[in-house]
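Two proteins were folded this term; both appear here.
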Amino acid sequence: MYTYTHAEHNRSMRSRTVPPQTYFAGSALFHYLGPAFAVLLFARVAPLGVAWMRIASAAIVFAVWRRPWRVLKFADARTVRTLLALGAVLAVMNSCFYEAIARLPLSTVSAIEFLPVIVLAAIGVRSPRNLAAVALATGGVYVLIDVRLRGGALGYGLAFANATLFALYIVLAHRVSRQPGLGGIDGLAAAMLLAVPIVTATGGWRAAPHLLDPVAIGAGVGVGITSSVIPYVCDQLAMARLPRQTYSLMVSLLPATATVIGLIVLGQTPTARDLLGVSLIVGALALHREATTAAAAPRPHRDARAGREGLRRPGTLPSR
């Protein structure tokens, strides 16, 4: 049976001393920095092949780091279903996303990605101030989108499919971050492991011709770490302490992040309209205020409570 150690408990306590907004900032930075590198890799590997490299390399990192089979071994049926759903969403979402950014500018795809998320941000709005923040963020994204069918109907269809799956990712990942016995990152690691067979079925055949290419493999591993390890871990650490509505509103910063990264990495120069949209989104984030009710507070993890009990009894370590 898996043992919750003193070191794991101490790391959990240290992670809670960092403001959750800091973790979100890390997620926002890498959420599109990795995909920008992936666009450069498209010249060598097809988008679905890059999606496979991303998921597979992230799964290997999580397997070595977290050994997620321990979670799957002792999980109940409901937890397994949640992890399977998250794994399927990760596999299909990333495949749609890469096919979309192969056809459309990164900033356009990221702006479309926010549209279903605004519904999550609007659910549970409790004050006129936060309602105004949601409206301001929506206006900012609308300005950023500037939808023109320059990439063709297929590109936009893939972008909207990715957007729907991204909203579902937020719901499932937030549930995993609050689920007792998972520890957030361990649940994410298990879901990533479950995503590998799905993404192999859709994109493994596109990656196969490049598995002996050290440049492609090295770049694919880099994309996996910067796209699916660092940002998703930051998501779990932020979601564990932020209400889902607050986190969903903060996601509106992603189109602004994509605009900046598109400029630096891909040379996609923002227009005056882009800058206006970014300003509106930043204003929305400044206006928003989190709920302070007890209902907004995250439930303590069972393993964290067990860790404290074990620390009070020297020589004993609880297990799950």
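Next, the second protein.
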Amino acid sequence: MNSAAFFFAYSGKFANFAANFLFNPSMTMKKVRMILVSMAAVLMVSCGTTSTVPITGRQQTLMVSDGEVLSLATQQYQEFMKSAKKSTNATNTALVKRVGQNLANAVSNYLKNNGMASELNNFAWEFNLVQDKQVNAWCMPGGKIVVYEGLLPVTQDEASLAIVLGHEIAHAVAKHSAEQLSTQMKQQYGLQIGTAVAGALGMGQNTSSIVQAVVAQGFNFRNLSYSRSHESEADHMGLIFAAMAGYNPQVAITFWQRMSAASTSQTAEFLSDHPSDATRIKQIQGWMPEALKYYKKK
């Protein structure tokens, strides 16, 4: 049984067990909370899998399989492309495809050369430029990359576009979407336990309504807001990927300065939940010596 199936199959049984076990008038709420936390931790650990993020070496625990994430992402990507209007600018479209493929090749070579060739099964690269004035770009799990035309006046050159796409590809390679989905599943599971206990103790059905809302909440990879730690990790990995692909990573600093300026005058979805400008530039400067080791001018 895969992790997600395990979660959905046993979360309800576990919640009922918790309610029966805790239906004891002599038990204080402090003890209730302690036992709930312990039981939740045990189940969450038992149904998670641990993997290592390339480049940074960070350990992560995921509650969903690659296949489950890719299936959902592919469905959402296809739905988006049905309504999106592809750019009619042949030159800019070719630019996006060229930069995207260069980065994809660099990532593929890195994974092959570092004992992670099996990860390549998770990618079927595709690059599209769409008609939209937003300053934005994204990469869904599976390597489905979309750039909005509004981004190109800010990137201005091929190397800066590589910085953006390297960042977005890094989210996919690091499986940040799967981590976000896992977090929501953990939150849902915790609420399910809380609902069972609240019902057993006569505390009403408000928590149940919250559970239903969490379950019904749409999870969209395209509009996903990552944590600041994920954004910083994507900056780090993206800088390395751009350098591996033959793009000068030093353009990242001036590019992010332009992005900061653009965000004050127009909607820049790409910057949502990112580190502050000063923090980002300081971090990039710190990673630059590492990135330059990979850089070979094309």
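The chain has two domains: 3-52+177-216, 65-176+223-294. The beta strands are 49-52, 59-62, 126-130, 137-140, 144-148. These notes refer to the second protein only.
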